[in-house]
Fold this protein.
Amino acid sequence: MEVHAHTHTERKKWIHYFWEFLMLFLAVFCGFLAEYQLEHTIEHQREKQFIRSLSGDVILDTASLSKISELRISREQMLDSLTKLLNSRDRDLHLNQIYFYGRHIQRLFPMNFTYHDGTIQQLKNSGTLRLIRNRKAADAIIEYDAAVRDMEIIEDREYQYLYLCLPYMYKIFDGLVFEVMEDSVRNVRPPAGVVRLLKSADATLPEFNAALFSLKIANYANRRRANILIDEGKKLLTILEKEYHLK
């Protein structure tokens, strides 16, 4: 009968288990760090993409506001000229120009500000505003957005003043003359030939003067707000360029 010798495996020391545990822990920990760093890098890239997109929106805003400010200067001059000519002694010599100014004051749409808020709305609606980790930049973005909302309120008020003005215009101007003053692309031209004001014009003029004054105030307020918003936009762009090294 053969006798088999039993081999005895040497028991591992505790230090061996400790090193195995440590190596496993380090592998898991390093994997966690790598995943965290990758996520951090991706979020940083997304943040910078949003900032670049937002900067583009603000540049469009400031360009649009500059044009609106110029148009409002022209509107202010037209409102002043209309008031002066309507109340002048030789009013009948300037009726064609009066109709031209009268038709223009109804046209507010060229001066409506369209907020390029695609990026900021995406940040708000998707809950990714948290991506903007730079506190200074985040505060400036919120302040700019609030300033735009203030301007929209003032614009709405101007429309209210215009609606109050319209009933008086219906008693002063002949709507058929207004109808033929626009060309095919809606450009306004002074009417050709002899034109007249309605018979109720003189009786309505004091109330119309008051309504025109309200329109002047609203126009001034909107022009001032546009200039303030231009400055706010430039300030925001400066902060974003500095904090995110966009140039």
User: Anything to note?
Assistant: The chain has six helices and no strands. The radius of gyration is 34 Å. The CA atoms of residues 143 and 232 lie 8 Å apart. The helical segments are 14-86, 95-104, 118-125, 135-170, 175-179, 201-244.
